[in-house]
Amino acid sequence: MSYVSPMFSSAIPVLYRDLYETCSNNDEPIHKDIYRALLSQCNLDAVQLKKIWDLVGPNKCPQGIVNRTNFYKTLALVAWTQQGKTISDKLFDTFTGQEYPSPQIGDLSGITNLKQKLFVQELPSLSRSYHKLMEIDCVSVQLVPEKKGLFLKYSEYLVTSKRFACKVTRRYNDFVALHELLLNRFPYRLVPSLPPKKIIINDTQFLEERTRGLQRWLTLVCRHPVIYRDGIITFFLSDEGSDVQHRIRNAFRKAPDEFMTSDVAATAKELLPADNGQIAISRDNIRSLVNIVVRLKQDVESLVEQSHASARDIEDISAQLQNIGSMNSQQFMENWDSVQKNFAGMSRELNGISKTNQIRADYEQRTVCEKLALLYDILVAHKELCERLEKGLANDHQVALSKMFALKKKKLQGAIRGIDAESVEQLEAKMLAQENIISNIDLRTDFSLYCVHLETQLVFAYLGTLPSILAGFVDLRTKTHFELLDLWRNLQSQYCISSSTNGVGKGT
């Protein structure tokens, strides 16, 4: 059954719709690589294909993709070309048939395989929406109130994981050990930097900020679509033994990096986008976004600090009025008792305003500021990842080869004692089978670019939260101002009169 599109004067063949479903991923516009592959199956020469491409191809659509209308036009133009007609856009205006012609298309199995590479391997695992990422795990890091140690005091953190349904106690140095191991295991993935060990700052404030930083860091790591599956993460989130930093290093320090065991190490080049310039453009855009988001983050934090400062000032005004209200009034003017009562009442109302300011500022810190900080952390992680690749790819390759030679001399058996998805025997077999792949630095380069391509998609999944963060900021500010307005007006109506009146308070 055919149907008539409002963009066309004649009926659209069923074949057009079927081909669109074949080439489209979940009914989305057609990727230009798939569009190119389709044209290659039309048995037309290069000049004819270029003319069709120029008339209705990706260059005519936003973002270099082909929408349904232009895809249907492409099929009609192909059919007319195969019929020997000279093609142009005017053909659509002068066509008088009831149904547009159907083109002769060759084998489409290559398109199916290409879709596998472009979408099936990437989207379910790495290009998840932010909500899908949130479903991977929910972790929390809470500072344990009491410091440990007889002489050298140190802080501990209670780490909770929803995925493992357990709580473990960790020290900062345990996080350091995990960070080092993840960088060695996943050199081409987003592994953010840890918050600093110690800086010159008020100790309480520093510990609060570091706790929030560790919370963000662990959230990004434990929701990473590849890293979260690794045994290193399982060990850190579930092991209840003592001396974690040393045991986790002993268990995983000889673990090979991701390239040495990846199933796509030999074919990563085929999975890269056809236009490698996209990776460089995305890298430059993300570097610019780092500067933009950090300014947004600093501005909102400044507003939150202003709210805290306002709360402290109003609290002090309340305290001073309370002091006046509690003074002995015998030496003051007539009717001073009633004035003192007004001051005491104003003090209570101002104290409520101060607490509201404080509560709202704390909530804004936990929601808006922390979400912006999380976004900033992952943007910086991408910037650092690109810098690592630019500086250390050759060194990574030498380290990998050294591990390969060590494996030949001494079995890996027992070197990795963590809880891994693969057995140690399978890991050994895979590394030995990939010896030629591991020795090829060009393949490592392709694999690193492939990882960066996927990590960029992950960054943009997080970047998609920015509109909701800003909407939440506006909503919170609006509600806070209305709430404070009501409190101030209540104070005004109960205790204050016009400033033009000589009296001090209501009824005086």
Run of helices and strands: EEHHHHHHHEEEHHHHHHHHHHHH
Low-confidence stretches: 1-6, 120-128, 411-422, 497-508
Helical fraction equals 55-70%
How would you sum up the major sheet? 3 strands, antiparallel
Assess the beta-strand content as a share of residues.
under 5%
User: Could you give the distance between the termini?
Assistant: 88 Å
Count, helices: 19
Q: Structural class of the secondary structure composition?
A: mainly alpha
Descriptive notes:
By secondary structure, the protein is mainly alpha-helical. Helix content is 62%, strand content 4%. It is built from 19 helices and five strands. The strands form two sheets. The protein has a three-stranded antiparallel beta sheet. A two-stranded antiparallel sheet has the order 1-2. α9 (203-222) crosses α15 (336-409), α14 packs antiparallel against α15 and α15 packs antiparallel against α18 (441-463). The longest helix is centred in the C-terminal third of the chain and has 74 residues, at 336-409. 29% of the residues are buried. Residues 1-6, 120-128, 411-422 and 497-508 have low confidence and may be disordered.
